[in-house]
Write a structure and sequence with these properties.
The chain contains six helices and no strands. The chain has 130 residues and is mostly helical. It is 69% helix and 0% strand.
Amino acid sequence: MLLENRVNGKLTCNEGMFASFHKALAEYSFATFNKECKVDLDENLNALGRIFDIANNKSNLPVAFATNSMYVMVRNGQYIQGIREIIEGDLLPRAMEKSEHLHAEGIAQLAYSLAQTEIWDEKAWALIRE
């Protein structure tokens, strides 16, 4: 979205001698890059889902990893099967276990993820309200 806004938004050069050149260059480069990003997401988000299928209870992942992963998976949820199970089974317990290290971005990501997946865990929502 950010790239598309730069191509067609307020930052586009619409006047002057090089306006048409600038517009064509911006549309070509940003549109091409945007397509490549979408292809990359298509290919790699499925791999992210498979990573969480590996049972590794010994890992000591940071709380930011858990909240960032939840947000990315929910935001691009059409690509990953079983998001709710991954969040409830692994990521949410890790986030709650290390809740004292959560910062504002992590809390926002947690709230977005839980709301979008309709997970109404009382302790997690109490933490978000707090």
